[in-house]
Amino acid sequence: GAGVSQSPSNKVTEKGKDVELRCDPISGHTALYWYRQSLGQGLEFLIYFQGNSAPDKSGLPSDRFSAERTGGSVSTLTIQRTQQEDSAVYLCASSFRRGGRENEQFFGPGTRLTVL
Amino acid sequence: SQQGEEDPQALSIQEGENATMNCSYKTSINNLQWYRQNSGRGLVHLILIRSNEREKHSGRLRVTLDTSKKSSSLLITASRAADTASYFCATGNYGQNFVFGPGTRLSVLP
Question: What residues of B are in the A interface, CB distance below 8 Å?
């Protein structure tokens, strides 16, 4: 079956504009994660959705960042009033919990965001 | 602060040699996972080891977990040029997000 897909693959925007990044997880996966990765750096956790539970938003860097997951499937990460420091690759991953145990995460190819 | 810290930050070896990367973490975990990233985009899952396991194998990969020392190691045997990538460990607990370390950049020279 299809893997995790993200769109767009690349996004160039001007400082101050809003952007929306989309993630289509693997069908049936109950957990969805957003990460951010700056050039040559590790992954920075942003937000985590698990089933119908309240999302873990502890990694969102500011109130300009928000995310939603509609119908337990597709997720959108929105960055308002973008700043140059928001430039990074935004990665989405999904996983399937079985018997209360976490399993491997499947990553999408990422969206490379450039804020001019 | 980072939960997982890989060591070394960078490693350069000759093709055919073994590569060993280590990961240390601070708090108790349910599982630890290793991922590979080839091109700065998506990550590929390599292996998951649970807290009640001490060693797992997958092909040329061997992962160990020492919960008393809060550390894990990833061994790649008979390395190939195609193994050149960044390797990340991620620690997880039930129902919580995973925390990734900054990664080890492995270069396998032909």
Answer: 2, 30-31, 33, 35, 40-45, 48, 50, 88, 90, 92-103
